[in-house]
Amino acid sequence: MRQVAGRWLIPVLGGLAFLFLLVPIAYVFAYSFNDGGKANLTWQGFTWENWQNPCGAPAVCEALGNSLQISTVATIFATLLGTAIAIGLVRYRFKFNAMANMLIFLPLATPEVVLGASLLAQFLNIGADLGIGTIILAHTMFCISFVVVTVKARVASLDARMEEAAADLYASPIQAFWRITFPLLLPGIVAAALLSFAISFDDFIITNFNSGGVDTFPKFIYVAATRGIPAQANVIGSAMFIVALLIVIGGQILASRRARMLAAR
């Protein structure tokens, strides 16, 4: 009896938790078709107009463009720097290695309110003008930690003997890196970049401290929530969820095909 209950209890609870997580997404998707006008608080009827004109709400596409620009640049910088740091921390031993590892994890454990306020004070002390530049610097700073943690796990799992074999075959260190190490690290680097982009695009607290008069998509949503988030914002959110879902499904399909190809050899 206990085994039967355990066999059904875990799937049922897991399914309920999964449905609970999907409820907000379903709400956003449903209200992207709402003919509610500016106050998108109650259901007024079905319409395709919001999807046909996603920039219909004032400033929504401008805020989206700012978020995409900031997230893309911050992701590139964070991925490049974080990957280099991860390789250095795993492959090399130096005097302050343990301290460097601790400092990498520090932004992950620091509350975003504290981090945002500290960065704001730093920017004001050096006389920097708040805007897209300060947001990119702030996002790059806290995204590096996520990149390092992700890529570091991948670097630690690599077999160093493969690079030694490449050196025995007269490959230079640069050739060994680009032909052996980098292809093996690439899945971890891509995962870290996607995680960094999602965190940067989604951030509100640190952005709100350091953005000045620049609006990002999360800031737009926060301000608009007091009078009802426009349906166009729900359209953009639904579209981004669909794109992210397609990327995940595509990655799983490619990984499955690669596994079958390797198994067939």
Notes on the structure:
With 265 residues, the chain is mostly helical. Helix content is 77%, strand content 0%. It has 2 domains: 57-216, Orthogonal Bundle (MetI-like fold); 230-265. α1 packs across α11 (231-264), α4 (97-109) packs across α6 and α7 runs antiparallel to α8. The chain is globular and about 70 Å long.
> Based on DSSP secondary structure assignment, what is the total number of beta strands?
0
Taking all residues together, what is the mean pLDDT?
84
Helix content: over 70%
Q: Based on helices, strands and strand pairing, what is the structural class?
A: mainly alpha
Number of domains: 2
Report the CATH superfamily of the largest domain.
MetI-like
In terms of DSSP E residues, the strand content is under 5%
Instruction: State the helix count.
Output: 11
Main beta-sheet annotation = none
Helix-strand pattern: HHHHHHHHHHH
By CATH, the topology of the largest domain is MetI-like fold
3D shape: globular
User: How far from one another are the termini?
Assistant: 46 Å
Q: Which stretches are poorly predicted, pLDDT < 50 over at least 5 residues?
A: none
Q: Please give the radius of gyration in angstroms.
A: 23 Å
What's the CATH architecture of the largest domain? Orthogonal Bundle
* CATH class designation of the largest domain: Mainly Alpha
